[in-house]
Structure formats: structure tokens, C-alpha cells
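EI: anyone free to look at a 737-residue chain?
SC: sure, send it
EI:
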Amino acid sequence: MDPEGPQALCDLCLAQVCCSLEALCSKRADGSMSLIWAPLFPPELADRLLQTMASKEMLNDSTVGIFRDSKELRLRRASIRCCVMSAEAFRLALCPHRLLELDASWASEGLTGASVVSGLVSSPECSVSLQKLSLNGLHLDWGSLEESCVGFSSLLGLRTLHLANTDLTDDILEDICSLPHLESLDISCTPVSNLSALLQCKNSLRSLIAHRLRQLNMSPSRLLFVLSQLDALRHLDFSDDRLPAEDTDGRDGDEVARQLLEGSSQILPSLVSLDLSGRKMIGEAALAAFVESRSGVIFLGLLATGLSSSHVLTSLRNLKVTGEANENQVCEALRRYTERECFVQKALVQLYRLTTDADTAQPDMLELVLGAMKSHPTSLHVHLVATACVFNLTTQDLAEAMPVSLIRSTITQLLHAMKTFPNHQQVQKNCLLALCSDYILQDIPFDRYVAAMLVINWLSNHQDPTLQRMAVAVVSILVAKLSKEETAKLSQDVVFMKQLLAIVQQKAMVGVVDSTLKFALSALWNLTDEMPSAARSFIQCQGLELYEEVLESYYNEPTIQQKILGLLNNIAEVKELQADLMDEGLLEHILILLKDTQVEVGVRYFAGGILAHLTSKAEAWTLDQDFRDAILKQLHESIITWAHLEREMVSYRSFCPFCPLLQTCQPSGVQLWAVWAIHLVCSQNTSHYSSMLERDGVTELLKALTAHPDTHSDIQRLVGSILRTVEGHQSSGAQPL
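SC: here you go
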């Protein structure tokens, strides 16, 4: 079981409500949904329902309509982050609530900062109750406000406001700073040019995040004066993540940062947290002066400053630092800078170097890497390094020591990266390296069909031998783990079949025997297992002709022959396709393999299976009758000499293909092959196959063979052994799996 334990009942119930929303609702005239009946939800539960709907990407103008009933579904902390919603739907569904917090960051479909504020102000409840508002990433569109008196200052209870990555102007900032209770303000990545408005809230402002203000037009002395007046300020973020290619050198900002560090503790006397990450021009002397004069400081942001390994930090054990010097600093950076792509990329580069030889499972660190990938789903810079970090953190046995749910989320992110960056070889390589793990591929639940398609599509456009080997290995294991429905769907994709056959042909042309060839053959074998559509597709793609050539050219390679014969055995099981195998030259070659005592039993076993299926229907045999009789005779003579195998050679999804071979009217050679096969797998894995015998009706067929007077004694002996083994297992109290 996953160490994290089962999912919380509340989460399961909310997920079920989301799945059943259509059935639970009626439709209003405008198309919005309304719950037919609802109990009185506690505000915390209503908030979680909204959040669950948002996380499942099902929140829109129609579904958000259920929250128009503000008596039963009472929202207090609402998040519509990244949701698609119109201004009108927002006003009708969310504004009637007595909201304390609202996060509408990065919302789309006509929702602007102006429409959000206008809607909130129109509500007597919200205009007083709202304490925290996040509009990061929204177009404010302030000019669209019809009433000039409406603004942020109308939200009288507002204490926290986040406006990062918006078109914030100096005039709007002036309005914001008139709020009587403003304590926390984020104006990062906005085009504001003057921060003098902050002087209006100097007695209340406790946190100012002013990251990457590229259009700031203030002299260092004026900016420092404004900042120095904020006596209540406890946290200041004046970081910058400028890129080398950008025109501005940021020296004015760096100068302000340096003076802040060197200044007296009487400047910003309440300061306990300072973030100057990205400010490259500040020196170690300035940092030392700040640390020595500020004994109460608890956080310093020093990523990409060159100062995070400074000796003045080593003795400060309670000080949290973002930087590159050690794992703690890097992880702190990933936690704090989730939405800052440049900082995230720099932190991940350091994390990769620090985890190259990781030998201890670090799930918390992996969580941070996944968070970075989720926050920047289209960033090549982030995914290039993040996927490499994932490999470092999950390689060897590290993944097995982590929660299953975490590894499952990891695979989901890796598949997203493969889909998003299909032509970037290093990203694909990193993902394949991470996926190429028996534990991950065999034991972790994830969408294996999607994974197989992504890998095979990548293979069709790339020829790198190392990546090809890994990709084919992954595909081989994935195909074996697919459900019958998924395998059927996959078999309809001709590209998938042709790509695997092309690899077989490529290797066969030069006569090479390597893991890539073996994995490709295994994948094709698994793909056609009890899957007539896949077997038919194999034939239509000229796979049969290719396999005949490979069978002859690899006569002395038992592992190759076994995989080829295994697939031909799958075709022979399909009645409608048996005619395609009625080739005298092919069957003579297979008969030679069956007779040759120097050939491994595994190869002779599958050769016998092909011949048993093809000779089991006398009316369908189209070759010389004497040839059929010779095959049937040789089947019995060869099988009776086979030694019992200890190692597991084959596994079966069902015994259904054996049922026609076990009829009492079948020739003894046909019956003997089927009975020998069943005896082999039952003796090796009794608990698994005993239930399959009952399920597929094979037990009754075996008993019928035992009772029939014409059943050969060799068959009687094996059948008796099978039945005794199964009966002994059941009487011991073991339950069939």
C-alpha cells in the first residue's frame, strides 16, 4: 500500500460530486447549472468543492453556476486560478458570497482586473469582507471601468493584494496605496515607474514584493528614500532575474540593493526578510555589514548573486537562504520562486549537480521538481533540467522508497514533457532514462497506452542507437502491461506496428543480436497475444515475410527464435489467419526445429504450438495430408522427450486458445502439446493458473480427457498430475489469485 495511505473520504466525495455534476443539476435559461438539491455546506467544504472543480479543469460559465446559491454553498476562500470564465458568470456566481479571499490569477475568457474589482465592489458583502485578492497575470483593463470612483480603494477590508505580471500603472498604484489596512503588496513584473505612492501606506505595509521592475524610473537615492520610510516593513523582495541578452543592466537597482545592505539598522527597522536574488553587483562586504547589524533577520534571498556560499552565513543556523551553495538553499529557492522561470531554472541546474550521485530517497525534493514542471508547463529551459533531476532522484532503487502516488505524478509530468517537446532529443532522453525502470513500468499505475504511443512516435523520427534501445525496451514492457482494450486500440495504429517491424528489419539486415532486437520482438509478441486484430495488422504490414527470413538467418540464436515462434504461435491461434501460415517451406523449417534435439526446449515448445494449432483442424488443412500426419506423429514423439523446465518460459492471459486443442476428438499430438503447456505453467505458478483453469472451463475438459477411453496414456499421466497439483493447492487453504 502507498505509505501515504488511502485518499481522504472528503476528497473522494468531492471528486464523485464533480463526476456526477450533470446528473445532480438542472439548467437555467442562460445555460448555467443549478444543483437540484444541496445540503448546507460548511464554508470550508464549499471552498474545496470549487477548488476541486478548478483542479479538474471543469470550472466554466456553466458549472460555476452552482455557486449562485450562496445560502447552501457558502464560499469564503475562493480560487478560480487559471480557469476559463466570463465577467458576467464571475459576478453572478462569486460576488454574492461574503468572501475573505479570492484568487483569480491567470484566469481567461474575458475576465479582467477591472471586471473582477467592479464585480466585488458591486457586492455590499465583498466590498467590506474581502481581505486578500490575487490577480496575477490578468489584464487589468482599468480604462473599461464605467465609474471613475470604482477602484481597489473601494475594497475597504483589503489587506493583501497580488498584482504580479499585470499592466499596473502608477495611477492605479496610487489608488491601491490609499487602502487603510494594506499590509502585503506584490507588484512584480509590472510596468510601474514610480514607487512614491508607497509612502501613503508606510505605517501599515508589512510585505512588499517588487521583483523585476524593469520600467522603474527613479534615481537610486529617491528609491532608497521611499523604501527607508516603510518603517513597518518586515519583508522586502527587490530581486531581479534579468537575462544576459536584455538591454538593461540593472545597475541602479543593484546600487539600491547594496545601499540597503550597508545602511544602518535604523533604515527599515522591522525588516526580518530580504530578497536580493539576481542582484549581481552587491559585494560580500555589504552582505557582512547587513548580517552583523541585523541579528533578527530570518531570510535572505541570494540566488544568482554569487554570495550564497559566503563565510558570513555559515554560523547563522536559523537563517534561511535561497542560493546555490547546498541542497537546503536550492530547495528553499524552488519553494519560494515557483513562478519565476529564470530562478527556477538556475535552482534546478544546481540541484542536478548536487543529486548526481544521490543514494538516499528524497521525496520532498522530487515534489519541488514536479512543482517547477507544473508551474512552467511549456518552458523548455525548465523541463530540460527538471527531467534530468527526476532521473537523478528516481534512479536505481530510489523510486521504490518513495510514495507510489508521488512516482505516479512524476510519470505524468514526464509524459507531459515528452508530448510538449517531441523533437528535443535531450528532454526525450532524460524522460526515457527515468522511465526505463522495471519498478516504474511494472508496478506503478499510470496511462501506459499514452506512454507507449509517445515513445513509438518519438522512435519514428529518431535513429540514435542508445535512445532507440531504451525506447524499445520501454515499449516492450508497456505493451505487456496493457489491458486487452488498450492493446486492441494500439494494434489499430499501423505506424506502431511498422515502426517495430522496421527495427527488426534494420537489425536483421546486418545480422546483429542485441537488446534492441530482442525488445522489439518481445513487443510484437506481446502485442499479438490473443489479439486477432494485431495479428492481422502484422500480416498486412508484411511481418510474416520478414519473420520467415529472420527465422532462417538466426537459426543458432534460441532467444531470437523463441520470440519469433511465439508470435507465429499467436497467429496460429486465430482461425481466420491460419491459412496465411499454410506454407510448406515455413512449416518444414518449423518441423525441423521441433525434431532437433540440439535445439532448446523453449524453441521446440513454440514450434510445436504452431504445428498443433494448424493440424488441429483437418478440414482447414490445405497442404499434403501425409505432411499433416508426419507432423502429428512427430509432435507426440518430440513432446514426450521434453524435460520439465524450472524457469518460467511463458505466461498466459487465459487458457481459451487451448480449449479447441483439448477436445477428445483431437489427435494425441495436438492434445499432448496443450496438456504439456498447461502442466508447465501450473507447476510453476499454481496459485495464479488454478483459478484460470476453472474460469476458462479447462478443468472440465481435462476431466473429460481422463475419462475418455481413447486418451493416450502419456496424456492421462500429465492430466492426472495437473489435477492433483491444483487439488492439492486448493485443499491446502490457499486462495486462487
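EI: The chain has a mean pLDDT of 92.
SC: 👍
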